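Data card: per-record layout.
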Amino acid sequence: MDKTLIIAEKPSVASDIARALGGFRKHEGYFESDRHLLAAASGHLLEIHPPEGCEPKRGKWNLVNLPVLPPAFDLRPIARSESRLKILLRLIKRKDVAALINACDAGREGELIFRYIVQYSRTPKSIRRLWLQSMTAASIREGFTALRTDAEMRPLADAAMCRSESDWLVGINGTRAMTSFNSKHGGFFLTTVGRVQTPTLMIVVEREEQIKKFVPKDYWEIKASFQAAAGLYEGLWFDRKFKKNGPVSEGESRPEEAKPERIWSETQAENICEKCRGQPGAVSEESKPATQISPLLYDLTSLQREANNRFGFSAKRTLQIAQRLYEHHKVLTYPRTDARALPEDYLEVAGKTCSVLTAAEQYAPFARRILEENWIRPSKRIFNNAKISDHFAIIPTNVLPKALHADESKIYDMVTRRFLAVFFPPAEFLTTTRITTVREETFKSEGKVLVNPGWLAVYGKENTPGQQPALTPVQNGENVQTVDIAAERQQTRPPARFTEATLLTAMEGAGKLVDDEELRQAMSAKGLGTPATRASIIEGLIYEKYLVRRLRELEPTAKAFSLAALLRGLKITELCSPELTGEWEFKLKQMEQQRLVRTDFMREIVSMTVKMVEKVKNSEHDSVPGDFGPLEALCPKCGGEMREQYSRFQCAACGYFLWKNLAGRQFTAEEMNTLLSTKRLGPLTGFHSHKGRSFAAVIKLNGEYKIEFEFDGQRNMAAQTADKTREPLGACPICAAPVFETGSLYACEKAFGGAPTCSFRSGNIILQQPISREQMQKLLATGKTDLLTGFISRKGRPFKAFLALKDKKVVFEFLPRKSKPQKPASGGRNRQNQSTKKKDVKASGNADNDNLRAGRPAGG
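The structure for this 860-residue chain is written out next.
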């Protein structure tokens, strides 16, 4: 009897399918029933590469070998998952297998994973597609009754392959060209670029440039207090003749800074105060009802954005949680979606989901009311096939969660309350605008009263019976007295740095920040990347050291500004323009809808790649223009003016120069000013050894004015002396002698010299986390630092910890782990009352060279 082979994307999904369909027996690496074989990939098993002879030998990264434009791409197994690929190939070739079913994730990447396996196997067997929106058993069984044909899925497969091949062409050629260009004068300065990654980076760079160029400007606001018959109220002065793009009172301001309540002259502000002080005023007031509808259902990007704003979750973390709620707990629908609506035939499903939610205490009152009031009705805002592509909005399934950890509960609660809220009526307010006129000067007072909470009730907002209006009541035309008035000096602020939430918004709008969520949704077809890839794009920029996280903000590094200067200088607009990259993403979507053919898209990508490489080949470092200027510090050799150029800092008088890049790290102008002025800088992180390992070090200018690394503070304590020109940091925990800073160490006074009598020492960089003098002082005084967030483990994973003194040694002290829900009759150890963990840093021993270069204390 012929069988059908089902290929899932992950082993856990294969297990779910086996349980849902039933009748499967488990074998080594696959399941089998009377009608089916069932096996799984583990993400991508194959990667594209040029055919033999097209790719230059590894290590030959120079412009002569570029561009690499393979006539076609071959596939090769990914080493770590080759064993799983062999199982699938063996099953595909079985004589009793007549057909294949693609059960990988229902999206572009899931299609690509399956298509590459089929292409590599060279099988002619027929293909059908399982397209799941939910991982419940009922949804899986229903999906198998509505399998899609191979012809239906070919456009999605074409788009997936175009995405893969275009990213390879731009990424490989761009990265090798930029790296070769930046490494012309020696060393190896890896400069990665990508079709979507680099335009995303440019959004952040341009914002940072706006911040750096911003010059704050003083303005004044006038606030007044008025006495009415019923009591006091406040008002804010405004210019009723204000026009956004016109002059502002006694001067003119840039349009983006101009607002009707801002006064740009202190004299004018004080004159208004004197004019109105103690004077009577007349009141006019208007109250009118206003409504506010609920937000749309979540797609992945809006979920990531709000989770970042509310909980500080990274986009990657939110996707991980949502994927687990979908795949493991089966309580959410498919999360990697760009839709914020449901299918038009989903009214019954929505009703069933509400019925299930009546069994959950926190959602029951709202779910019952929706059902009792019959609020689930046809609505193009909620149920709209035209607003759905491959997947619909993220909503809860008809399975209630049983044991979620804290972060999972937060995301589930966000989705479930949004689902319930969308069926509730609008919130109703009474808004009051009051204008007080004093000697022709106008003051505005506003109040807003919640009359009917509507959907806000789902989020705990209720109107209180007998609630007083926000403003002291007055009669229209009532005369009031100005009892207090003052002008307050304010300053304009630069644009805010991007957070992951605001960067996701900008990516969705191809670089344009759009606040209105329905307009933003309309623009999302031309966004940067897809909801499923945006998190990995941001993480990739952080991994490549183009961006750093500062709490919730994303800040571009010197490496990012250097790449921006290079791309602009060479006029490679394709990688500078978010709008153009958004157009490419739009074309991939058109391909999925059979409105564009694969060859046309790839022809455009190849043309762009060739032009990019030619521009790099025809350029030299000295010809790259940029926003460069003189340094504050003078030339250490002749005292001449030092000027910044694209690749170096050079003296205009004698030609002395220092390269910007050293061991894979780029210096900023501020760092170079410090080095030239003090002859010493650091410790600094971000250097990379010839083995590719990151390390931290102090750098200094030697007698020949060349840069040297300074490691001797760690390597040879016998040759060092305590730097007693600076105040000691505190008492040694071992012998109570003073602790001083020297080189890249904090050490006891008695730890120096040829015959040290004390062993206490600690690096001033530990696992790439700089330890400031203030933190070391706190450690010695109190036994514990503040929580430090910049540690990087040996495997490259960031973590946060305190440094603490234990047994007279410096150790890591971690925050207690959040307790996980305990399963009934679990034999596992209950972590709920687990004490704070500690781990020795061992900062005092001699380090081997690699640990030393990585900025790690010995054994750290």
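Known properties of this structure: Residues 403 and 821 are 6 Å apart (CA to CA). The chain has a mean pLDDT of 85.

See the next section for split statistics.
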